[in-house]
Records
---
Amino acid sequence: MAVHGALIRQLRYHGERLVPQMFRHQPEKYVQQMCHIRGVFTGHKICVHGVSQDPVEGIAKLTVEKQEIDENKLPEDAVVVAVKSCAVHWVDVLMIAGQYQQAPPIPYTPGMEYSGIVAHPGTSKELKAGDSVYVGDIFNTGPRSYGDYAAWGGMASYSVAPASSVQKLPGNLSFDEAAGLNGAAETAYHGLVHCGNLKKGETVLIQGATGSSGLAAVQIASAVGANMILTGGSAEKLKIASDQARGEGKVKGVFNYNEEGANIVNFVKSLGIKGVDVIYDTVGGNKNAKDLLRLIKFGGRFLVIGWTSTPLAGGGRGAGADHATANSVPTNLIMMKGAQVIGCPVAIHTRLNPAIRKQRLQTIDEWVKQDLIKPYSSHNFAFNQFREALLAKWNRSITGNCILRCQD
């Protein structure tokens, strides 16, 4: 079922000569029917064929290739989705350069989560062709997963996922919003709730609150009823982050760490807050860790979510891996504060214990219905602007999510 934009435009132009009368006002349906008979889906996909010195080089080496999917050669549980919106994540950029700890098989198509229209439901009893859906299951499909579906990312005209990973679009979310829902929300929930045990009335400092998982953390902390201090690199981004508090928990202060003379310790003291219960750190950095630990209450929880300030520290199979930039945390402060430093790797933890995901998804779904979680994206790009989209994410030009629109 290949809904090819150029062919549809030709059919509209030629009208009666090419299209049977019953389809003359709906050439898309004619194309869909003809392609369904063939059982072949054609389009284009972005491909990664090797690793690079750095993400900028990796993005430059990406190729756009013809896509042809024969539904008769797919696994029985496979669903074909005509992709409308695909989230562009920080991890996508690192993977493209081979700088992420997990290495997808090469070649593969990037894009860990996406939304679109069911083109072929396979043997699914819950889905039918034409359903609006999203695929936000990084554990079982796409380049962050393992197994039969690891090569099928969302940066393509079509992608393929197991039926269990394909969910119907929530009625109150757009395709763009749904495409960036689970990756960020599950990361934030796993950190704040599962690992950090964040409670109503507590105070959490969200370090790097303006990225995708940072904005999700603001929404989830607010939904829990916790108050927040937000940090970020610009006043404009921090204003957007503050607006994400949709529940009982409120933002008590915002800190721009790029301002001249900025001092997070003095700033928090100026708010009259004597210490925070939880730190949610997406940024990393040795000096940052030292300063943040000085702010934590005795027995507080320091949640390690990521290290965007030293992105190549994690290493991978790419030539540019820089293990020398790996972060360190001062053990003297950990001891004197009685602090709990907790690594929060949502993908690894869920793969080792899949049972922890059920409650997480149920709670996220409920908060989506209550409008407490609503993904925000500052930028969207057309499919032929995929390099610009990836570079914008890498260069920190994005607030929240970045979306690649894959259909005409």
---
Amino acid sequence: VAGSSADPRQAETKTAPPYTLSNLKPFTTYTVRVQAVNKEESRTLESNLSNLETFTTLSDKPDQPQQLRYGDVQSTSVFLRWYPPLHLNGAIEKYNIMLAKGRSVNPN
């Protein structure tokens, strides 16, 4: 018989199935590597590790600012102080300060 058949032990040139990493933290840099593993009877055969890939997850909304306090109340001004959110989840661009007469501040 003429011709040759492909050796079934040779790797196919297909893309491996995709995999989604989940439960990652926002605005966090991660590094990932992949390793192929075969089982042969009672042995585990592991490939070398892939190249490193580094990525940063997207930002998300920050936690609320902490420990809002006021002081130095004057007739036309008041001094405000607070601590940044516990989890920034990104770079804080600005703080919005809402003011209302009375005891309720509704952001809408």
---
Amino acid sequence: MVKFETSEIFSKNQKDFVHQILEENTRVDGRTFTQYRRLTIGFGRVSGQSDVSLGKTRVLGSVKCRAVEPSSFRPKEGFLDFSVTVSPSCDPLVADKRRGTELDEARRLLDRVFKTSKAVDVESLCLIPGKKVWSIKVDLNFIDFDGNLADAAAITSLTSLLHFRRPDVTIKGDQVVIHSADEREPVPLNIQHVPIVVTFAIMPNGTLLADPTLLESAVSTGDLSVAINTLNQVCVVNKIAGRAIPSGKILDCLKIANFKVDYIVTRITEAVAADAIKRKKEGLAEFSWAKDRQSVGEMEAIAKGVKKAMDRAEQTNDDEQDNKGKQSKRKRGKSLSPDDPDVQVPLEALPSKKTRPEVTLQAEAKLTLLVPDQQPGKKGDTKQAASGETEEVEEVEEVEEVEEIEEV
């Protein structure tokens, strides 16, 4: 699909070597015709930053967003734009072509893969119809290039979009309040399906090479790029120039690409999941703290539960104090007996259970035993009647002494 003019980069001997080795059913780097190069995926410190390497082709991707006014033709849809550049760190002869039609064609391919196929729901980017929408921009920068620009750009774009989190918002009438990551957890984009681009180089003898290198692209007569999602749906079939391809060859490319989709999607999802775990442990991302925090509703429920528990604890303490006060009053209004656990009485001072007399406390904390037949208030007891007034005074003094002992 995307092919740099490489006539000035490789010599005739190098191209002849590629033709010769293809006749032996092998490739320059030892791969088979349908084999992909090693795919490596990394991420930056900020959400949406990715570092993808496909063989020696390396791409840095980043996603940015801002709230803008929508188009008058589509007031309920947001914007999704792609930018593809080649860094001067690449081969100088390749970097000189960074303003050519190849990069423009790469941008158009990405638009068809992600926008036309509705992989990214642009309607979900609408904040206020006709007034505010999200504008998402994907920047791709090739810092090293060794062929297959289309696949590397599509994989990097998809990885960055899956990894990106936009700020959460609150809409109040016609006003949009954008919350920072400290206030609310950022929100992922609404990606409806995952398209994968697989590019084949069409060689002069009709051979199709998956994931062509820069040297193989220089020898080929054209490229064929197909995009298939995980639902086995064909999203895009793109061919710009070169010799005609029989329909049978195109079907073969679709079958091969279908197997490559599972491999590439698995690598991307595993990389994103591993990075999420890494961020949660090390706290590298600006939104990693939000993974462990409770939502507003859960926090309110927890606060209510804590308040109820505290109220119950206070009520229990009040009830215990009331019970203690009542018990203290009951003890003050009656004389204590040896069976009361609050009275410490020596065992040797206690009589047998058959003739156990009543016990009262004196001021010196000594025991005074009153024989049942000498208890005050009984009729026929002349001795007790003679000193009735004195004993009544002693009973009042005994109650006061009991109160003093309890207070101590």
---
Amino acid sequence: AVVSTQSTGSATEVERTAQVVEEIERRPISFPEFLRYISTTDTDELNDHWAPWFLLTFPCHIKYDLIGYHEDFAATYRLLRETLFPDYRGEIAERYVGSAGREEVVEAYRGVSEEVLAKVHRIYEDEFKIGDFDQRLECV
């Protein structure tokens, strides 16, 4: 997880995000519609929640001591606890395995065209590599 203490969004980005939120509130969009939006929007125009995190954190220019992942928060927590608070003995749940089963994930992707999926994959390809996530498109 990347933590920022200040907003990096420009006024234009904030306005665009507000427009997207307003549109969603008027008519909730489907997951395939959301991925089409991601695939057709310049990454510089995506808000911080959807932009590839390497564009926000400059990992090639800043030497981070730790980059943690939601998917393995327990390991990140233990490392931080052992490093910063070695005498603390509190625990948390083990590895996060996802909130949806495989069937729900496959169903969510069912309406996504291969073209859109390939574009989204290219946008986040560096994140897949850096996070050592499964990159096989046939997984979905």
